[in-house]
Amino acid sequence: MNQLIECVPNFSEGRDPAVIKQITDEIQSVEGVKLLNVDPGKATNRTVVTFVGAPAAVAEAAFRAIKKAGEVIDMTQHRGEHPRMGATDVCPLIPVSGITMEETAEHARRLAEHVGRELALPVYLYEYAQPNPARKNLSVIRAGEYEGFAKKIKQPEWQPDFGPARFDAKRGATVIGARDFLVAYNVNLNTTSTRRANAVAFDVREAGRPQKDAQGNVVKDAAGNPVNVPGSLKCVKAIGWFIEEYDVAQVSINLTNLSVTPLHVAFDEVCRKAAERGLRVTGSELVGLVPLQTLLDAGRYFLRKQQRSVGVSEQELIRIAVRSLGLNELSPFKPEERVIEYLLRDPGKTRLVRLNLLAFADETASESPAPGGGSISAYVGALGASLGTMVANLSSNKAGWDARWEEFSKWAEQGQKIKDGLLALVDEDTAAFNRIMTAFALPKGTDAEKAARTAAIQAATRTAIEVPLRVMQLAAEALPLAVAMAKQGNPNSVSDAGVGALCARAAVQGAYLNVRINVKGFADRKFARKVVSAGARIEKRALALEKKALAAVRKAM
Predict the structure, then answer these.
(1) What is the per-residue pLDDT for 1?
(2) In CA terms, which of 129, 437, 532, 545 is 20 to 30 Å from 339?
(3) Which DSSP string do the residues of 66-111 spell out, in sequence order?
C-alpha cells in the first residue's frame, strides 16, 4: 500500500485572497500533492489548508508554504479571534494510509529541522513528534500567543526545538507535529456574549475550569496547584469567542479523538449545557474537512433519536446530519467539497454507476464488449437489494408498527450494505475485463515478453473470476432479506419483495455464467474447480431462497 499523509497547516491570514493564493500556489507547485481544501475565516483572520500526498512530497509542500507565509504575512499587523503565535501558526502531519504514527512523527521532526535550519525560524514540536511530555500540548506551547512570545522564547524551558532562540517579529514562530485526525468544529449560540460562550466551553471541555470557593477564590491542593473541575467531554478542547462577521458567539471545539467523543455527541452536549445557562444552539460549522464516517454516524444517531430506520442511503444520512447539526446556518455546507473521502476518490472507478439510467443502457447496448453480463448482474443484484431495503424502510415507518422500527431498521441497514457493495462491483467487473484485454495486447516477441504476457493474462483472469464470484456472494445475501420482507414486511409491498428476490437470484445466476466462462482459460485448475464448486453451492441456495420468497408472496396475494 502506498504511504499517504495529510497536512493541515493553519496560516495567520484569512481576509486577503491574494495572500492566501500565494501560499496555496506553493503547495500546488509540488508534484504528487493534492490540495483538498482552503478554508479562510475573516473573524479569526486565519486560513486552514488541507492537502495530501506521499510523505516526501507533503513535507516539501509544507516547507514551501511555511517559507511563503513568512514572506507575505506580517505578524506585527495581525489581529484575529483565534489563538496564534506565527505566520504559519501550526503545521500538523496526519497518517492517512500505509504509514504509522511513529513514521509520520519522524517526517514531522525532519520537516521541523529543515524549517529551523533553512528558514532560521523558531520551531516547536508537538503531539506525537514531541519527546518532552511537558511540551506536547499545542495550547501550552502557544500560551501567551504572539504578543507574549518575545519574552517567552528567552526562558530556558521554552527554547525552540529547532531554529534560533530569538523573537522574529514579522514571522513569529511555528509549531510542527504529528497527530491523529482532528475535527475543528464551532457551535453557534443565540448570544453575542463571549463570556457566556466561554462558560459553555468550560462546561464541556476535558480540561474544565478551576474550582472556586464560595468567595470566588481558586481552590488549591496541598502542593499549591489549582484544583480543576473537569468538563463533561473527553478528548475535547474548547473556548468561547465572538464572530463579528456573523454577529454570533460560538463555542469553538477541537475534537481530538472521534472514537471517544464523536461530533454528534459534542453537539448535543453543547446544546444541553447551553440550555442550562439559558442559551440556545442555533447551528454549527465545520472548519476544514471531515471524515465521511463522522457524518454517517451523526445521521444514524439523529435518525435513531427519532426512532426511524437508519438503513437509508449515504446521501440521506449526510442530509440528515447536515440538517440536524445546522451546518448550513452560516454558509452552505457542500459534502463534495468538505468530506475527505469524496475529495480523494477516483471518479474513473465509479464511472458506470454514475451514469444515468438512459446512458447506462446505451453504454451497455453499444458495440463495446464492456460493460457486459458481469456488470449487469451486479447492477440487477443491487436493484434486488434496493427493493428489499425499500420494503424494510416502509415497514419501519408503517403506522401501528412503531414498536418494530428497530427490527426493520436492521434489515434495511443490511440491505444498504449489500446494495453499495454490488454497485461497486458494477465498475469492478468492467475494469477486470479491461485488464484482460490490456494483458492480451502486451508484446510477445521474446521469451521474456511471452512469459510476462502469460503471467499478466493469468493474473487478470483470476480477478475476472473473483469479481463475479463476489457478485454471487453479495446477491445471495440479498435473498434472506427478500424472504423476511415477503413474510414479515409491510403487506402492501409484498410484491416488491418478490421482485427483489427475482433480481437477486438472476444476479447470482448471471454472475455464475461469468465465473464459468472465465475459468475455462485459467491455468490453475485446482483453483478453477474450487470456484466452480463454490458457485454451484451459492446458486443452489439462491434458488431455494427465491422459492421461499415467491411462495410467501403468492400466499399474501
Answers:
(1) 56
(2) 129
(3) HHHHHHH--GGG---SS---BSEEEEEEEEEES--HHHHHHHHHHH
> pLDDT tens-digit profile of 317-370?
999 999 999 999 999 999 999 998 888 888 888 899 999 999 999 999 998 888
Strand order in the sheet with 248-255: 236-243, 248-255, 183-189, 281-287
Q: What integer is the mean pLDDT of 4-29? A: 95
The three cell numbers locating residue 173: 514562530
Rounded to whole angstroms, how far apart are CA atoms 237 and 201?
A: 8
Which residues are CB-contacts of 296 (< 8 A; sequence separation ≥ 6)? 314, 317, 318, 321
Which set of grid coordinates corresponds to residue 14?
484569512
Dist CA 239 CA 496 (whole Å): 53
Distance CA 104, CA 121 (A): 22
pTM metric for this prediction = 0.84
The catalytic residue positions are 82, 429
Percent of the chain predicted with pLDDT > 90: 86
Q: What tens digit of pLDDT does each residue of 525-548 get? A: 999 999 999 999 999 999 999 999
Identify the H or E element spanning 250. Answer: strand 248-255
Set out the domains of the chain in order of their start, with CATH numbers. 4-178 (3.30.990.10), 183-297 (3.30.70.670), 347-556 (1.20.120.680)
